[in-house]
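Narrative of activities, Objective 1.

The group set out to show that a structural description can be obtained from nothing but a protein's sequence at a throughput compatible with the screening campaign. Below is one input-output pair from the validation batch, recorded exactly as produced.
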Amino acid sequence: VTGVGFEMYISEKVTFGGKGLLHLTGTDWLDDYSADPNGDATQDVFLTMGLGFSYYIFAPKVDPIVIETPATQVVVVEAAPVDTDGDGLNDDDETKIYRTDPKNRDTDGDGLTDGEEVLQYKTDPLNRDTDGDGLTDGEEVRQYKTDPLKADTDGDGLTDGAEVKTHRTDPLKADTDGDGLNDGQEVNTHRTDPLKTDTDGDGLTDGEEVTIHRTDPLKADTDNDGLNDGDEVKRTHTNPLNPDTDGDTFLDGKDRCPLTAGVAPDGCPHTKKNTVVTFPDILFIVNTDEFNFSEPGTLDNLYRMKDLVEQCPELQVEVQGFASEEGTKAHNQQLSERRARRIKSWLIEQGVDAAKITRTVGFGENYPKVKEPKGGTADAVERARVHNRRVAVKVLRACR
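Output recorded for this entry:
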């Protein structure tokens, strides 16, 4: 008997093989005759040959089913993986890989099946709160839509659990009340209310107080001058960090002219008739009657002018405009008149009684405050001209 064969592994679960067999037999009894007709002794010869192949297909957790034929042998292993609890993980993987309970769809009881945790959300099926933020994985995914792998989904400095259970803020929004401070800054640093845009009710948002004005967001009147911070910033334009903005010893809350140093009894200057008060820091864009608000002194001095004009009901003034020397005299005259009128319109826009402004007048390039050099650098000439593009207020009727 002679045989030859081979076996080849095609993949982890499939094996293919083949074999051949040669069987040679010599015997005197194969055909019941022991000798040929001539009487010579001989032996009969019997030869058999076989050829076949086999293949094996393996799948887990079943006994092999073997099918045999004289020339072929097939071993087939086939069965669907067993998932007893229907959680999307087969029992063998649950037991050997994930250590979860193959008879319990949600081993850790967090509201997500073991399969969802492993295959979809990448959370720990043995830990109810994978990121340790105080919310179960199921609550994060199904109820709050937060990230179960991230303790602070919105990155505001508060854990998702603290936002939901303690502060009632939105774990998906860093600044729940939209006041310019994120929830973590409000709770941990400034102690403001993350659900209120203006914790102290002074008319400024918590974010404006902290990042712009540097006032106390927990105190309506930071400097204790009798004006709340919102009034100082938006109405009187005084300094909410200085109780006496103009330095005349009258607190801003009791000073009728808090931007202009004055005298008793009300803190106003009580300017006399024909007094001229110049405001050189109210600047205009070159060759226009538009205010140059890019210069911080412009707005501050506009409010100082308003403060002076409103110091008493009976006060009446004349608004004067001036121009520098560049351009023609006629052009400069017209420009100075336009600037005086622009001052008047601004004052009225801010609530000043129009009757207090008796007239406006322009003086063109006449009466320069600083003599403009005829030579020199452009910067030197411009420094002089800035002072000549000015406005002034002349008192026509003083306070009683």
